[in-house]
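pasting for the record
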Amino acid sequence: MNRPEYSSFEERRQAVGEPLPGKEKYFDESEFEALEFPKSGDWLASHKEQGQSFSQFQSEARVPLPPRNTIYIQPLGEIPSPMLKFIHSYCSAFFWGNPVEVLEPIRMENLQVASRVNVFRQYHAGGIIKKLKMPQRAFCVLAITLEDLYPRESWNFVFGLAAGNKAVFSFARFQEPKKGEELTWFRASRTCTHEISHMFGLSHCVYYKCLMNGSNTLKENDRRPSNLCPVCLKKIHYCLNFDFKARYQALAEVCNRPLSLFQRQKDNFLHKSKLY
């Protein structure tokens, strides 16, 4: 039996506001699933978030404007070149029309941030963010690493952390060697775009099943979709003013990979590209 919805239809309608003229099908309620009440251990069971409507977002939005409009990806340590290339392509499609660049890698030990041993070596996410440098043309910087992260002593780990126009996330808990590297890529692309979206001013979503849902565990992370819901899609469009059809087509092309998860996502993006 389905759990009750976390928000009412009227609350979701008010959160979206008026759909963009001529683009109504991209925001049609029937194209999305409402978020259900959390189960024990889920993000919303322990974080009582109220949600951020589109009208609330407008006063908090961070819009990238030239010359400081580039999204930079900063590798920390050795990350395979094919993975970096894919993440760059995925982010370029997701934030369609906005420049995305990959910086030269930095060795984690050169940052000199706090670390601890919690089964294995972990690095302090907030310490990393403080040490990140902003290139001259940067709108934001996202550091990525294969090392595990923690945000404070009381937490076991964290997938990623964003603060203002800087963020960091880890692939450490995404890897399952027996299932192949593309599963890591799939998970990484979703967390990467989630964290960058925070730097545009988006809060966690409580209205629909959405890329911007919070997650406590890898299982919960895997449950959330790669799509933005109507509320969050409208927020990102407000910042970037992209062409919906071109964006979905670009995402479908990037997702044309052997992994079945990518294939399902490709089909979903193609469907959305054909709404008009």
